[in-house]
What we know:
By secondary structure, the chain is of the alpha/beta class. The protein has 2 domains: 4-118, no CATH class; 141-414, Vaccinia Virus protein VP39 (Rossmann fold), CATH 3.40.50. The chain contains 17 helices and 13 strands. A 7-stranded mixed β-sheet has the order 9-8-7-10-11-13-12, with helices on both faces. Strand 7 (203-207), helix 10 and strand 8 form a beta-alpha-beta unit. It starts with a helix and ends in a 19-residue tail after the last strand.
Amino acid sequence: MDQAAGRLGSLLAEAFGGPLPLRLRAWDGSEVGPADAPVLVVRSRRALHRLLWKPGELGLARAWVAGEITVEGDLYEALARLAPLIWQHEDGPAERNVRRLLPDPRLLRLAGQVLALAGPGLPPTPPREELRSRHGLKHSLRRDREAISHHYDVGNDFYSLVLGPSMVYSCAYWDSQDSTLEQAQFDKLDLVCRKLALRPGQRLLDVGCGWGSMVLHAAEHYGVHAVGVTISVEQAELARKRVVDAGLADRVEIRVQDYRRIDDGPFDAISSIGMAEHVGSVAYGTYASQLFGLLKPGGRLLNHQIARPPRADESTYSVDEFIDRYVFPDGELAPVGTTVSLLEQAGFEVRDLESIREHYALTLRGWVTNLERNWAEAVRLVSPGRARVWRLYMAASAVAFEQNGIGVNQVLAVRTRTGGNSGMPLVRGPWSS
């Protein structure tokens, strides 16, 4: 029997400058590597063809989505073991090790050896879950609608399966690791309401309202009149049903509306939870200025946003190909310092910043547990490829948060009144004065 695993393992070791920290099983049944490690299974030579035609991250992602590679054993451990090969920290910034190899002349020789192992073949068709065509300028109204639809309009039943009854698709807030996902999401929504110092009769805007969980919580528990906006039609349909079912139709309005088209301010408070990652650097100044203009003097903004570490040379930043093609098209992450600066440039006074990085790792693990527990139903609702996309992106994101590859922050800002009165309390904690 041709020992494909040994040959492939040697090629990977040469490419990455060290042995693969996983056990490797090839399509011929051969295995190499540490016996106590998770197993990276290469089920088909087609996976090698994908890497030859699209070296690096995107080729690997396509092979995973197509089911040509998988992991047996603890997926989190496998991803954590692979992280040092994928991420290399030098002088603070994170660089993609795979991308650093691409211009290396060694790859030409390695590619020839991979081709000999894979055999002849045309480039495989990318799995259908990949978004390949985009229309219009980046972050134009039309293109943003298409990007949001790709990710969110895949079926409310699927999201209900993954997210659980809370239907909250953002980082929860865990008092302890023994808390439930539902309780942690309730606590996050309540924390946002308290930071905004919501009171009965106030008017709240929730930008990127998803399935309406924030506006429902604020109306039910804090007595506000709330407007939630989303550009996902499927989200809005379910959010409106939830509002009616909760008996809150007189206090909660759900709109299919881009944040750039909101013109009926002012609002007493604005929440933006897990939405700003979709805005992009070219539009972030517009986003910040628009929210500032929609707030009453003395009003507060709670901006809850994923962040990446800064780079010594920000011009080298490029988006994650897997995430961009399969998960969040046109999404962008920025350092939290950049976010704070842009909010301040728009006129906000930033009063508090809370990092809750570890909380997102716990949240993602909860979502992965829901997905894996209901795997057959998830595949039925979407497709095997789409389910594999979600499992990989959520598990890999959990590891990235755990290893401080990315973070998430709640930034509390205020539109200070003329004369400098912020309306903020003197001490942090009791958020209302």
